[in-house]
Amino acid sequence: MLYPTSRQQLAIGLGLALLMALTRSHHWATLHALPDASWAIFFLAAVYLRSYWAAPVLILEAALVDYLAIAVGGVNGFCVSPAYGFLIPAYGALFLAGRAYAHHHRLSWSALPWLLGCALAGAVLAELFSSGGFYFFSGRFADPSLAEFIPRLARYFPAMLSSMALYLGLAAVVHVTVAGQRGAPRQADPS
Length: 191
Fold this sequence. Notes:
This protein is mainly α. It has helices at 6-24, 38-48, 54-71, 87-102, 112-137, 146-183.
C-alpha cells in the first residue's frame, strides 16, 4: 500500500475527525442530520492513514462526541451502558478490515471485490460487537436470547450497512476523481 504523503494524511485525518463530529452527535439521519459516518470513518482511516494511533484517537473522539451530545445536546443516553466498551472491538474490527483492504488497494476494478469483502466483513463484526454487546450486556433487556437478537440484527444492521456504504461510495468517488486529476496527462499551454 502506498500511503498518501504526511501532509495528505493529516488533511485526511482531520477531515475524517470533522466528519465524525458532524455526523455522530445525532445518531440517526433526519432532514437536519446526516447518517452517522463512524463505521466508514474507521475503515477509511485504516486505508489512508499509516499510523495505528488513528484508531484510538478516533475512539476517544467518538466517546467525547457521545458525551457532549448527551450532556450538552440533549441526545437520549439510552445507548450508554456497561456495554459501551463493546464499541472498541467493533471499531477495531472496522479498522482492521480497512487495513486488510489497504494491502489490496489499487485503482482498478479488480480491487472492488476486496473493497466490498473487507467492508462487509468489518461491518458484520462491528454489528455483532456493538449490537450484540448492547443487547446481551447492557442490562436494558430482560432475558436476552439469540432468538430475540436475530430479528433485532435484521432490523438495525441494514441501516448501519447502508450508511457505511454511502460514505464509502462517496470516498471512492473522491478518490477516483483526485487520482484522475493527478494522473491526467498535462496538455501544452496553447499560448
